[in-house]
Amino acid sequence: xxxxxxxxxxxxxxxxxxxxxxxxxxxxxxxxxxxxxxxxxxxxxxxxxxxxxxxxxxxxxxxxxxxxxxxxxxxxxxxxxxxxxxxxxxxxxxxxxxxxxxxxxxxxxxxxxxxxxxxxxxxxxxxxxxxxxxxxxxxxxxxxxxxxxxxxxxxxxxxxxxxxxxxxxxxxxxxxxxxxxxxxxxxxxxxxxxxxxxxxxxxxxxxxxxxxxxxxxxxxxxxxxxxxxxxxxxxxxxxxxxxxxxxxxxxxxxxxxxxxxxxxxxxxxxxxxxxxxxxxxxxxxxxxxxxxxxxx
Length: 296
Known about the structure:
The protein has one domain (7-295): 3-Layer(aba) Sandwich (Rossmann fold). Helices cover 42% and strands 17% of the residues. By secondary structure, it is of the alpha/beta class. The chain contains twelve helices and eight strands.
């Protein structure tokens, strides 16, 4: 019977920032790189990291400005800057190739890494993350109007979500009461404790505005899929109010090796379904990494 590995909680200075990260397993040149969504942190992966560490070297950083990682200056707070910091971290750890776990607002970060160094990406795990127009449903109409015309009126039409209630809704929105009861309340309380620091709401709104650049890169992402065809595992909470389930089928249209699993869950799938996801995740990682010559 396998024993689960211990998770280590570390900090390293990279790219001019102190970056906090969790790691599990034996350090190696191949790894699983787990990137969290917004407004969360590497805390999202607390339940899968010990098991992953028995199969591979697993790294889960707090993206700059999230969790316990430093934030760059506001003018530099973009997905490009976040990707540069993550890139510097994995290089400093001696990681050359990785399985990339993407979700929510880490999807732009991960695909920037993939577009910059496609040869490093051994496989993709996409959990409620968007890379096609199909996944941006009607809930994004007001956002698109704001992108086209960032007026006060269009800003007001999007509503307020960067507050405590909005942080909690990121976890619970769209769920039936019995599914809400599965969510541990400390998750959004921890997120809000970090987000409510002076200046951080404005900082995270800047990042939200920069998501427009990710949408503009969809064609480049499609080219990456078509050219490199990384094997992909899709894990999807079907009640996600932000990214339409049509996104799952969009991945099937652009990639040839896709395994997809839908769950009766919301946006933050691992909060409620880590036990169901973990064996699928470790099996996928084993299959992908076993193709690497260094693992044979």
